Structure formats: C-alpha cells, structure tokens
Recover the amino acids of this structure.
C-alpha cells in the first residue's frame, strides 16, 4: 500500500426501475463510481472508477424469489459466485464460516485507477467506500486477480480466499481476521 494519501470524492451512479421487482434480474443493480481527485489548485480531475453489482438478496427472498434464480438471471459470473458461496439447499457453505444475518451481496467487478494515481491509497479507498455505501452488513465478493492489491491492502480490506475458486470474499458481519 502506498503511503501517499488520496484526497477527492467518488460519485456513485445506480439505476433501478420504478416498479423494481418484476422479475429475478431486477434484484441486481449495476453501480458505477467515478473517483475525482482534488488538485492543489482545488480543481477536480478523473482519477479512477469502480464498477459493482449489488444483489438485493433480502428483498428478493422476502418477495419469494430464490437467490440462485436472481444470480442466474443476471450473469454466469453471479451464478458462479452463488455456487461458490452456497450449497444445494441455499445455505452458506460451512467451510466459509459466513455469519447468518447478512442482507445483500456486492460483487466488485473492476477497479480502474489512472496511472498518475497508482501510488496513492485510491484503490483501497474506493473499495472501502463502496462497501460502506452499498453493503455494510453483507457479503462482498470479487475475482482475486481483478483487485490488483498489495499484501498490506489485502490485510487492511480483510478479504479471504475461497479454496478452489477464483474468488475472494469478505463477510461484513465478521471482524477482519487480519486486524487481530
């Protein structure tokens, strides 16, 4: 992780239908966050972007939808995430030790940082902000390779690898295992 602190803002954009629960795919929302850096002169310039998929899991289940059907209706990636996290009964796999009571699922699709901001803490700050805004009590999943994090960044964010899969996850209802 870089010692250089990043100062700026992130503007998130998400869209949903006015009658949002017509079919399983409508429980998944695409979210884009644009990071803007504050320059010494006070102006803002593009510094990076984060793209997410937010699965409104609790809302889907409360309305009688199966979480597998929601993930499957969106993409093969979310279907693979579901298969990695849950067993055939729809319960979290025991070996993952996921705390009951989580409410949403957040998939971090990509984090892109402009070259001049690679040496800053922007990547970690974007991920932390996205988690805080969209999934403070849920499960966060990403492709391990897509995050491009340094070892210290992994510890700070608290992601755990999932054996025999390309995914990492973070259970927001558990304390970061690396901070103990």
């Amino acid at each position: 992780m870089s010692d250089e602190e990043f100062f700026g803002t992130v503007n998130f954009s998400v869209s949903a239908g006015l009658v949002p629960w017509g079919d399983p795919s409508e429980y998944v929302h695409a979210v884009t966050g644009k990071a803007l850096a504050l320059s010494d002169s006070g102006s803002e310039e593009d510094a990076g972007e984060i793209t997410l998929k937010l699965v409104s899991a609790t809302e889907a289940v409360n309305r009688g939808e199966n979480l597998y059907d929601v993930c499957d209706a969106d993409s093969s990636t979310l279907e693979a995430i579901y298969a990695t996290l849950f067993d055939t009964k729809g319960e979290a796999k025991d070996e993952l030790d996921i705390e009951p009571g989580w409410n949403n699922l957040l998939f971090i699709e990509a984090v892109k940082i402009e070259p001049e901001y690679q040496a800053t803490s922007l990547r970690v700050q974007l991920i932390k902000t996205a988690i805080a805004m969209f999934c403070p009590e849920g499960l966060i999943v990403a492709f391990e390779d897509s995050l491009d994090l340094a070892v210290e960044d992994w510890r700070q964010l608290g992601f755990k690898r999932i054996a025999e899969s390309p995914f990492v996850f973070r259970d927001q209802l558990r304390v970061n295992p690396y901070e103990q």
In short: Residues 62 and 103 are 11 Å apart (CA to CA). The domain at 8-15+24-173 is CATH 3.40.630 (Aminopeptidase). The first strand starts at residue 8 and ends at 14. Helices lie at 57-62, 67-74, 76-85, 122-134, 144-147, 151-157.
